[in-house]
Amino acid sequence: MVTSQQNGHADEDLSEVSVKLSRTTTWSGTPTENFYRPDEPDPAYDEALGDPGTFPYTRGSFPQMYRSRMWTLRNIVGYGSPEDTADGIAQSLKAGSAAVDVVLDTVSTQGLDPDHPVLRPDVGLEGASVSSINDLERLLAHIDITKTDVAWHVTFNIYPMVVAYARKHGLSLSDVHGSHMPDYLRLNLDGGGQKFVSPEFGHRLAIDTLEFVARNTPKWSCGFPQAYNLRERGTTPVGEIALGMAIVRKTFTDLTERGVRIDEVAPRMAWVSTADIDLFEEVAKFRALRRIWARTMKEEFGATDPRSMRLRIACHTSGRSLVYQQPLNNLTRAAIETLAAILGGVQSVETCTFDEPIGIPTHEARELATRTQLILAHEVGAARTADPLGGSYYVEALTDRVEADALALLAKIEDHGLLRGIEDGSIESMMDDENLLREEEIQSGERIVIGVNAFQPSRENPPHRFKVDEASVDAHVERFIREKSARDPHRLEQALRAVFDSARGDRNTQDAMADAFLVGATVGEVSGVQRLACGMRYDPFGVVESPFDFH
Amino acid sequence: MNTRKIRCVLGMLASDKHSKGIRTLARIFRDHGLEVVYLGEHNTARQLASVAVSEDADFVGVSFSTGDYVRRVQELIDALRDVGGGEIAVVAGGLIHPEDVPTLEAMGVAGVFGPGSDKPQILEFIDRTFAPAPASEPNA
Known about the structure:
heterodimer, A: alpha/beta, TIM Barrel, 9 strands, B: alpha/beta, Rossmann fold, 5 strands, 17% strand, Acid_CoA_mut_C (chain B), Cobalamin-binding protein (chain B), metal-binding (chain B), metal ion binding (chain B)
């Protein structure tokens, strides 16, 4: 989710970015400025807003916004075997994509193996199956990770696996770039459940990852917090900021206690956000979020580097706003949400496909999502000037309100205790309340959703479907089993013991994980051994016995 | 008068974790007077089936966001039969494509609620299908 420009490679990569600002005059020829501001000096303006690119960054993180740094058009690739996804990546790069976003299947993303007796039907279904360094090598067959920015939509395991890949191929860790999303706490809130990782250990893994990233891979970035998932699970824009900031504050506080300076870690972060259907409220959210982030980094964590204070935002439009009925209407919804993201000043956008409520997106739907962004870039003029809604009485009032409410909710969450709120279910209960309210509003007609409770269609044709190549996945799973049996059992056990010991002790877990992947450990084994070290079951489903007897 | 409430076990199978819908439904069912045993995510079919039997459930409700629901539902039906709960109904919901509804119904699924379903429709089905029969009056 973090752009190549954000990694400091703006100049060389800009020419490849697939959305460009093609015109700074209006269609009728009127020239426009980088941004517009009050004519007279105004201390209140400077305090609350400031020009784009200046503290507190309410109006945008960069002075000229999209005139100097266009948002990155992101497309997610990931399905079937690693080779299937490698083909998809090659096509995406050939089609002009500047960067690659990879999504893994639910099995891999939850630290499980494709030969798990319960999980075979899930393998490769909603992403690529990558469970070992061999799989990673196949997926990266056409990619040089010192040159191409790969954004991994993954929390568990992927980062130490990439470190292992670099070690195996003799790449300097300082040259490796890309990003991933090491927000483990949200895993406990969006359906991950405590069977996989406890909030306490998940939080530890996040801190370990960020510490290791800060000290070893200077070109690596992190999508953190993964607030998108919190919104999809059931929070408002206010809740997104409050819960996301609670995760950030807890994590950064504990990192600084380890001696990691805020200016070492904050510049690597991109807030993973959503743009939902309420255009103005979402714009206000992005503006309030940047202001809260800037002030928090400066005033509470003592940041001095402007890059720590200016938040970059990676945005995916809202899947939950899309509905099954009359699916083509979702094109309109996704277009408005993409516009909200751009007017709100985000740094990268993935536009949802219109057919998401139906199943895995079709290729046609993906292409339409891409075209949506290109139309906004080239025809609508949405990127022509920074913070175009700044100064609107309405948007400024909404921004202030979202900020005040978010800070109040943040204080409430922190008073209760973030980890405690996750463990006792009170934060999930808050999300359930929001979802139930939404449902009740739709039922009562207070919330109109076109095609759902108003203007319903009289008849609809069944939508098209996307199918995964099963034979390819079968072959992949069989190969995975063969490769497992070909490993050196002694080296494997030694490496996994180190994983166990680091998880149980207080040494950073990432190095031992990378070493284990290097000798062929699988994600199921690494995660399973860590779970054992935390007193949990090796297999969350209680079906696979641990092959390792560590104490 | 029969005061027994409708009992259900709700949960998700395998690696599917998009639980927002089924959690919302759990609340709606409770508000409607059902007894709900909510097992959350990451269950095997056998785990769901065993709990359904031990809880004497009228039905098991499963929700899917991944596309493997036909196989998963069959596993659940088989598991129910294996643990002595063959009479317990299965209700499926979530991202279910309309083309698959006849297949699921032919497998014996009592109710299928895909993306277009709404709360009144689901509750009406539950009441109609699972409401306990009124106790007969002795010597009436």
